[in-house]
Amino acid sequence: MERRYASHPNEVKQFDTQRLRKEFHIPTLFTPDQLELVLTHEDRLIIGGAAPVNDEIKLETELKELGVSFFLERRELGAINVGGPGSVVVDGTEYELNTKDCLYVGKGSREVIFKSKDAAKPAKFYLNSAPAHQEFPTAKTTLADAESGALGSIENSNERTIHRFIHENGIQSSQLVMGMTQLKTGNMWNTMPAHVHPRRMEAYMYFDLAEDAVVFHLMGEPDETRHIVIRNEQAVISPSWSIHSGVGTSNYTFIWGMAGDNKAYADMDAVAIKDLK
Ligand SMILES: O=C[C@H](O)[C@@H](O)CC(=O)C(=O)O
Ligand SMILES: [Zn+2]
Q1: Domain covering 2-275 assigned CATH 2.60.120.10 in the classification
Q2: What is the mean pLDDT for each group of 10 consecutive residues in the chain (277 residues)?
Q3: What's the CA-to-centroid distance between 70 and ligand 1, angstroms?
Q4: Complex confidence, ipTM
Q5: Which of 12, 43, 198, 243 is found 20 to 30 A from 115 (Cα to Cα)?
Q6: Looking at ligand 1, which atom is closest to the CA of residue 254?
């Protein structure tokens, strides 16, 4: 498991492109038959991917890295499938996950196995895991069952649908909040006007992008913004003090996941566009 340390905004404003990418950009999530994991010290969120093709993939790591006797002993997990049909087996119970379905796995689950149904159309499970101090039941949800809301307008090139999966009024969790935002065709902007939430960090994973398309992801303090160029199926870490917004060369979908002091989705401090620098 790769480890990323937490960052101070006064240091980050000195970073060049290479250093910004090294600290915040996660380029590889889906390697066939491998588990990819990055533990950030921003609220200790683990960001990862499981792409089973010919083999099953087990959720595991060097246990010394977490100081526990099994992965979810003191953690919870959110998994969203962005590939073909697959399933997740939690302590012997199999949950089928089609494209864009979400599974929450509660603290205390001992064995989590990721599987694809068809090696020709492999599943790709995007993973967020946060420390948890209370057990909540493992639960599945789908786009159709999620609490969804329309946001934005074509005039602002940001017409999109926000789907909330793991949140206050949805699947219950200790601190993990997770969902998916889908931009309509011809709409390129997400989260503009931008916001910060010093109470919670956030991670974005962009997908449904063509191979030659990119998202210019915006980060930094509102008056010290920087950009990171992100390609299909890559993630980016947003410290609690940073905006997290982006504009694509075409429309896209992204998964957002948060951990921190509260689970109130609307607890954001809006930044007026006129105040951005
Ligand atoms: O704190 C919440 C997150 O930044 C996202 O949910 C924002 C988002 O999906 C969007 O505006 O498109
Ligand atoms: Zn946010």
Answers
A1: yes
A2: 98 98 98 98 98 98 97 98 98 98 98 98 98 98 97 98 97 98 98 98 98 98 98 98 98 98 97 98
A3: 32
A4: 0.99
A5: 43
A6: 9
Strands 35-40 and 2-4: parallel
Which tokens belong to 162? 């926000």
Please indicate whether residue 192, judged by its CB atom, sits closer than 6 Å to ligand 1.
no
Q: How far is CA 256 from CA 10, 66, 170, in A?
A: 25, 23, 15
CA distance 250 to 200: 29
Q: What sign for the dihedral angle of Cα 239, 152, 173, 129?
A: negative
Q: Quick check: CB of 25 below 6 Å from ligand 1?
A: no
With DSSP H G I counted as helix, E B as strand and the rest as coil, what are the percentages for the chain, rounded to 5? 10, 40, 50
Q: Which two tokens stand for residue 223?
A: 């008056």
